[in-house]
Structures are given as C-alpha cells and as structure tokens.
Amino acid sequence: MKISFIGCGAMGGALAEAAVTRGAVGGKDVFLYDSDLKKARDIVEKTGTVVCKSELEAAEKSDVVFICVKPQVTAVVAERIKPEIARGKVLVSIAAGVTVRSYLDVLGENAKIVRMIPNLPARAGLGITGAYFYNFEENDNELKDEITAVVSKTGKVVSVKSEKMIDEMIAVTSSSPAYFCMMIETMADFGVKAGFTRADALVMAEQAMFGTAGYLLESGAHPAALKDEVCSPGGTTIAAVTALDESGFRKSILEGMEACRKKAVKTEGYS
After folding, report:
1. Angstrom distances, CA of residue 256 to CA of 176, 242, 253, 263
2. Residue 123 has pLDDT above 90, yes or no
3. Is the pTM of this model over 0.85?
4. 3-state helix, strand and coil shares in percent for the chain, rounded to the nearest 5
5. Which fold has domain 3-169?
6. What does the H/E/C string look like for 121-137?
7. CA 158, CA 185: separation in Å to the nearest integer?
8. So what CATH class is 176-264?
C-alpha cells in the first residue's frame, strides 16, 4: 500500500514517521506534501520518504491519502485531490470538527472516507486514535486493516460505528492530555513547595501518572480497585482522596469534559 500525507505538521509528521520507522510501510511508499517544504524535507531526512510538489501529485502516487492540514483548509485540499479520490482512492482525515458530509459535498457521495481523531501522545507512539470508516464494504476489510495498522504505529486505534462518536471521544482522548498536564504541573508545584527541584518534581509527577496508567493497562485492574488498594485505613491517601472529593475534584473533571463535549459535538451534519 502506498500512502501520502498532505500536511506534515506535528500530527501529520508523527504519523508519517511512525509508519516508516515502526515498519508499517517502506519509506519509498510514503509521499509527502506540505506548503512549508522544510517540514516535509525534515521527515525525508529521517525516513527516506518522497517529497511531492503538490497535493495532487501526492494523491496520484498513493492509494490512501491522509489529510493532516488545519480544518479551515480541508475543503481546498479536497477539491485539489478530487480527481484521484474519484478513482477510488481513500481519504483519511484527522481534522477536528470536519465531518464526512463536508468532504462528500466536495468529492461526491461515493468517496471512501476515514475520519480519525488522534491525540498528542501519538508523537511518542503512545497515542489513542478513534477511527470511523465511511463507504467501506465487507470486501474492504483488508484495506481497513492496512489503514488501521499504519495508524496503530502511533498507539492504540479504536474503531467506532457512528461518526458522532469521533467527536464524543475528543473530551476523553484528544483534549485530555491538557487535563493531565494541568494535574502534573500542580503536583510538581507541590513538590517544589516541599523542597524538591523543579526538574525532580516534574519527573516524580510524570512517572507517577505514567506508571499508574501503564499498570492499569497491563493488569486490567479497575481504577477504583487500585485506588482502594492504595488507600490504607486511616492513612495518608484516604485523607487526600477525601479532601479532593470535598473540594469537587470529580465534579470539576466532569464539568470540564462536558464543556469540551458541547464544543465538539454537532447537532446535525453527521454521515
């Protein structure tokens, strides 16, 4: 399978690099285009991929076209590659808030489209990506698997059955790194207050969060069970948990995620 990436910024670049360096596809089968050619050339130096002179050239040379540009320019890009999508090539979009319908309005009703929502940890191979496949038939299962295999090089991939669920995921996966960073920063501030250096305090907070998530994923334990295991009767952790509950910790998280959801989820326009 030959793949092109139109847009080689933080996320597009991460996907392109991971696809090659983690063995999903060979460098000569990956074609790049970015209006800032330096971004594409930087990836070429690392991966041996191929730079193209236009969006259309990148689409012509590939079977699957990843659109990794800002949402406001997706329609322009789609129009430029329309002849290639009309030939049956697949368009994969990672643009937040850009619906399948908006692509169909440009490309026609028969276009095969995958709408994905990745998150920032994908850049370290630790991401989680939601994927919604539109206009794929049963005989396209192998193609779906190949596309999923490419994206899985940046972390886990979850396929959803309705497009709305892609936007529903944003609060849980795509935006949540910001929440975690706020918590890490706050924990590190406390560490500095306690006398640790900023560098040590950050490492302690980051590793504690990373280790907890890693343990839960590996063990399959429920978060509540691990919390109860850490909370000794009358101990320090239950004192902290009680104080957090009294200050509205869970309520604040839920309210923040609901605000994110309301911003992300549309009332109409889904495929």
Report:
1. 10, 21, 5, 11
2. no
3. yes
4. 60, 15, 25
5. Rossmann fold (3.40.50)
6. HHHHCCEEEEEEEECCC
7. 29
8. mainly alpha
